[in-house]
Amino acid sequence: MLSKTISFNLNGKKEIVDIDLRETLLEVLRYKLGLTGTKCGCNVGECGACTVIIDGETIDTCLYLAVWADGKDVTTIEGLEKDGELSKVQKAFVDEGAVQCGFCTPGFIMSATVLVERGEKLCEEEIRRELSGNLCRC
Fold it and tell me: Do 19 and 28 form a contact (C-beta atoms < 8 A)?
């Protein structure tokens, strides 16, 4: 096994973890750190279920090696709520009934969060294009 110890800021807290250099960030988040909100969908970067925010950008963690996260800021769906309160985007998804089965919801919320944080005024077509990397199985 080719291993390395990496450290990164995960949901606002420093995380130090031993990884296999071949592990994806998805595998580390789910199986080593127990953050199962990040879903494993297609495992080839097509569905967006594994989307997290790394240094302000959305990333498909199924294609992103964990070693690349060393020294970065990583936010998962679990990191959006603060003090027991859902984020504005999370609340909007719940309020509008946009959760359906819930499998794709974390990825959509992460992508939508980055759009909101950018503060750009986008038309519906532009929003659809920006969210096109996320697929709903329902």
Answer: yes
pLDDT tens for each residue of 72-117: 999 999 999 999 999 999 999 999 998 888 899 999 999 999 999 9
Q: Cβ-count burial of 95 within 10 angstroms (0-12 exposed, 13-18 middle, 19+ buried)?
A: exposed
Two structure tokens written together for 55: 């240094």
Closest residue by Cα to residue 72 from 29, 120, 116, 118:
29
What pLDDT, in 10s, does the model give residues 38-68?
999 999 999 999 999 999 999 999 999 999 9
- State the SS3 of the chain: CCEEEEEEEECCEEEEEEEECCCEHHHHHHHHCCCCCCCCCCCCCCCCCCEEEECCEEEECCCCEHHHHCCCEEECHHHCCECCECCHHHHHHHHCCCCCCCCCHHHHHHHHHHHHHHCCCCCHHHHHHHCCCCCCCC
Query: Which residue bears the tokens 């950018």?
Result: 118
